[in-house]
Here is the input.
Amino acid sequence: MEGSVNRRTFAKTLLAGLGATGLLEGTASVARATAAPRQNSPGKQLRIGCTALVWNVFPRSPEPLETAVRDMSELGYKGFETFGEVIEDWDKKGALEKLIAQYRIPLISAYSTLDVINPAARKDEIARIVRWGGILKKYNAGFMVIAVGGANRKEYDFKAHRTNIVASLNDYGKAMADIGLGSGLHQHTGTPIETRDEVYAVMEAVDTRVFKFAPDVGQLQKGGADAAQVIKDFASITVHMHLKDFVNGPHMGGYSPLGIGTVDLKSILETMEQANPKANIMHELDGSRNMPYTARQTAEISKWYLQRLGYMLGNS
Here is the structure.
């Protein structure tokens, strides 16, 4: 199929294409990622979906969603996620139901970036996610990913904002619980919750009856944490995840297709299999200029790696 990449070509060009720091030491990981897949292992229960980010689906550019959903479906991913603004745009056009039906892949979740610094913004933020939550429920999706915005890290004092952050997240979680949806924290570099200590301070303080953990493991690694250890520490409340690898290279925000970088993905997935095999696991990768691969190729490469771990994503 046009846009696909075969394992032999990938094995020869990946290191040069990514140009990532330290990747020469990861040749064994590359070989594992590109080896022929095996059948689904009996003990694997997690269903792995994908977000539309690497296809450049953003609130201001919702149009590529169909290409993203088509590719995910053809590659065998088990569900999709995109921004709340994007599902609202497609729903208003009357096109989201047709998209889901045509490609036979369910909508799992929506991504929102909310202000947790300014208490005056909270009412409007709640109204926004409740509106998006109604669209999620309409299409039998069940989770709102809550990322946090509103911080200039150069001038930021986490301790000064911690009380407002926790209160905001509790209110957002309760608003979602009140309409029958789950929600959780998606920590992110360059935001009010970036470092390991910030993550722990927040997740040890929020009301986990209504608000859970929905981490991005690549962002955790990039932020200086041991992502696998963080997941172990919060496994009981981790119900949603962006599965991402990190190589600290010049492309894709320093991230890479799965199995190439420094994130201990195998340990993370094993932890989730034991602690919460019904969790939403959504593969994600950032896009960038001068991408060494197409969006579909990155998703296909990651699929090969997941197959090597025993996850069968479709038949291709």
In short: Residues 158-178 form the longest helix (21 residues). The chain has one domain: 46-308. The beta strands are 48-51, 80-83, 107-115, 143-149, 182-186, 212-213, 240-243, 245-246, 255-256, 280-283.
